[in-house]
Amino acid sequence: MLIVAMLDTGMGFHFVSHPTLSGSNSNLWFPLPDGLELLAAVEQVMVMNHAANNVVRLELFHEGDGHADYRVVFNREIRVC
């Protein structure tokens, strides 16, 4: 799950209940740069942190005042040693 919200410092996104991408205190947010599509930004973070091979799609789960929740559909990274 992913939360996208307008924060006091700009638009950001947060991974919910992810062992790495949620942060040690479950409050790690990533900025969504102006002009970058949400799917591309999410994929970049997930691939860079070895959490995914790629992101297939984002499915809108809930939309509220100033935020939206998405289900992230992705292919897991497969590491060959």
Helix content class: 10-25%
Main sheet makeup: 5 strands, antiparallel
Q: How would you classify the helix and strand content by structural class?
A: mainly beta
Cα radius of gyration in angstroms: 13 Å
Structural shape: globular
Beta-strand percentage range:
35-45%
Q: What would the average pLDDT be, to the nearest integer?
A: 93
**Tally of contiguous helical segments:** 1
Order of helices and strands: EEEHEE
Poorly predicted residue ranges: none
> How do the strands of the widest beta sheet line up side by side?
3-2-1-5-4
Could you explain the architecture of this structure?
The protein has 81 residues and is mainly beta. Helices cover 14% and strands 42% of the residues. It is built from 1 helix and 5 strands, in the order E-E-E-H-E-E. It has a 5-stranded antiparallel sheet with strand order 3-2-1-5-4, with helices on one face. The longest helix has 11 residues, at 38-48. The radius of gyration is 13 Å and the shape is globular. The N and C termini lie far apart (29 Å).
